[in-house]
Amino acid sequence: MEINVWGLVAIVILYVVIFIIGIIAGRKAKRKGKQLDSEELILANRNIGPFVGIFTMTATWVGGGYINGTAEEVVKNGLVWCQAPWGYGLALAVGGLFFAKPMRESGYITMLDPFHEKYGPVMAALLYIPALIGDLLWAAAILAALGSSLTVVIGLDNTISIVVSAAIAVLYTLMGGLYSVAYTDVAQLLFMMFGLVLAFPFAMKHEAVSDIAVTAPDWLGSIDVDNTGTYLDSAMQLIMGGIPWQEYFQRVMSSRTARQAQLMSCMAAFGCILSAVPPAIIGAIAASTNWTMTGYYRDFNLTSVPPEEYKNLLPLVLNYLTPPVVSFFGLGAVSAAVMSSTDSIILSMSSLFAHNVYRPLRQFLGCGRKASEREVTWVLRISVVVYGALATLMAITMNSVYALLFICSDAIYVILFPQLTCVLFFKKCNVYGSAIGYVLGWILRLGAGESTFGIPTFIYFPWYDYENNIQRFPFKLLIVIITFPTIILFSLLFDLLIRKEIIPDFLSCCLAETEADDTSNKEREGTKDLSERETKDIHKPRDSDVVGLRFRKMDTADVDFHFEDPKRTSGIWEIRTPAAVEGREAMTLNSDNAGRESGTAEVPSTRISD
C-alpha cells in the first residue's frame, strides 16, 4: 500500500502542534528558573484547575484503545457487550463519590502512598506489580490502535507509526511531567471529538451503508442466559476495576481541593460516556456496510472485513466511507486520543516506580541514607523512557485492541480494588491481612486461567464450559468477595495474637496501634483542605514576605519550611513542603534567617500543605 502523502502531512502537523503545546506547558512550570522536582513532575504542584482537570481526566480514559475498541466490539459482539464506555464512566463517578476525598485530603503523592504508610515499603512494592501489569496492557492497547489506524489510512508501516507516536509522547512528558500531560490533554480531547463527530455523518451517507436503524438487530447484539454471569462479571470488573489506577488518582491529587477532585471525577464520567457515542455509531455503520461497494473490495478482494481485522474497523470506515479530507481529520482524532492516554500512563508507571519502589529500595540498600530529590527526579525521567519502550514493544506484538483494553483492568480489579478499599476505610487492617489477601487473590485469579496469554486453567468454578474452555461463573466478582473478608479477618486475627503476645509482631505493624491511630488522625487533620470561608482571608505571602525556617525532625533529615510570619505562635500558617515529611509534633528550630534563638516550635494543626 502506497503512503498517502497528504495524510502523512496532516499527521505530522498534528504531532508538531501537540509537541509544542507540551513544551510550552513544561516551560510554564519553570517560569521561576527552578528545575521541577519529582513531586512537581508527578502532581503539577497540586495546581490543576477544574477546567483543565476535567479535560485531562476524561482524555486519560478516552484513548485510542477506547475509541477503536468500542467500534470493534459493536461489530464483533454487539452494542450491549460494549461495556467499557459506561463501565469506566461509572468507575469515575464511584471514585469521585467515595475515593477522591480521602485520597486528596490525606495529601498523598501516589496511589500506593496509603499502603506505604500503613503496611510499609515492601507491601507497597508488591502492590505495584498489578498496577504495572494493568498500565502496560493499557498502553499497549492504545498504541496498537494508533498503529493500525495509520497503516490503514495513510499506508504508514505499523511499527514506525507506534514508535514515532510513543517517542513524541515520551519527549514532552520528560520536559514537563503532569503540566505537559494535562495541557496537551485539553487539545487532544478537542481534536478527537471534532474529528469523529465530523466523520460519522459522511460515513452514514455513503451509498454502501444501509440505514443503521434497519440493521439494528445485526449490531445491537443480545445477552444469552448462559452468558449472564460473564456479563455481570465484566461489568463489575470495569466499574470497580476502573478505580484503583494511578492515572486517575494522579488527577485527583493534583487538584487544588478535595471538592474539586470530586467535581472533576463526576464531570469526567459524563465526558467518558459521551465520548463513546461517535465510535459506537461508526461501529454500527461498519456492521451495516456492503464492503463490495467500497474501495476495500477493490484493494483486498474481500467481500467483508475478516474477524482478525476488526481492530481496524474504525480506520477502515474513515478511509473508505469518508472523503479524504474528512478521513484525515478522523485519523487525527485517533492519533490525539492515543497520545492523550499514552503520556498519562507512562508518567503514572514511572511515578509509582520512582516514589514507591526506588526511593524506599535506595534507602534500604543505602543503610538508611535517603535518595536525594535530584536522584529521584532522574529515576522518574529514566523510567518514563523505559516504560515507554516496553509499552511500544507490547503494542507491536499484540492483536485485539478491545481484549487488551478489557484485560488491563483484570488484575487491578481482583487484587488492587479490595486492598485500596480496605486500607482507606478499614482502620484495623494491617500488613498481615493484606499480604494473605494478596497471595490468595493471585492464586484464585491465575487458577481461573487466561487464554489471551496462554495461562492454563486449574481452578474450575461453577458453570465452567469445558467445550469452549470458558468460565461462565462471575469468578472475578467471587474472588473480590473472598478477598475482602480475608484481608479483614486475618488483620483482626493477627492483631489479637500479637496483642496477646502469642506471636511476635515480626513485621512490626501492630505495635501501639491506638497511639498510632491517634497521631495519624491529628496528622490527617493538619493536611485537610480548608474551606473557602477559612482560606479567603489568609494572606498569601509574596516572595519577599516569606522567611525560610529550617526544622529538624527527630528522626529525619533537614527539611525546609516556609511560613507566612515566623513570629506568630498560633493561628493559620502557610506551609509549603513535601507531603512525605510534613511537620508533625514539636521540632527543633535551627534559625538562620528568622532572627530567633534556637529552640522548639509547635507546628499548628491547621495548615495548607500545597
TrEMBL record:
GO terms for molecular function: choline:sodium symporter activity. Residues 519-540 have a biased composition (Basic and acidic residues). It comes from the Eukaryota. It is found in: Membrane. InterPro entries: Choline_transporter, Na/Glc_symporter_sf, Na/solute_symporter. GO terms for biological process: acetylcholine biosynthetic process. The chain crosses the membrane at residues 6-26, 47-66, 78-100, 121-146, 152-174, 186-204, 266-287, 325-358, 378-396, 402-426, 438-463, 475-498. The keyword Transport applies. It is a multi-pass membrane protein. Keywords: Glycoprotein, Ion transport, Membrane, Neurotransmitter biosynthesis, Sodium, Sodium transport, Symport, Transmembrane, Transmembrane helix, Transport. Residues 518-540, 583-610 are annotated as: Disordered. One of its GO terms (cellular component) is plasma membrane. PROSITE patterns: NA_SOLUT_SYMP_3. Belongs to the sodium:solute symporter (SSF) (TC 2.A.21) family. This is High affinity choline transporter 1-like. It comes from Lingula anatina. The lineage of its organism: Eukaryota, Metazoa, Spiralia, Lophotrochozoa, Brachiopoda.
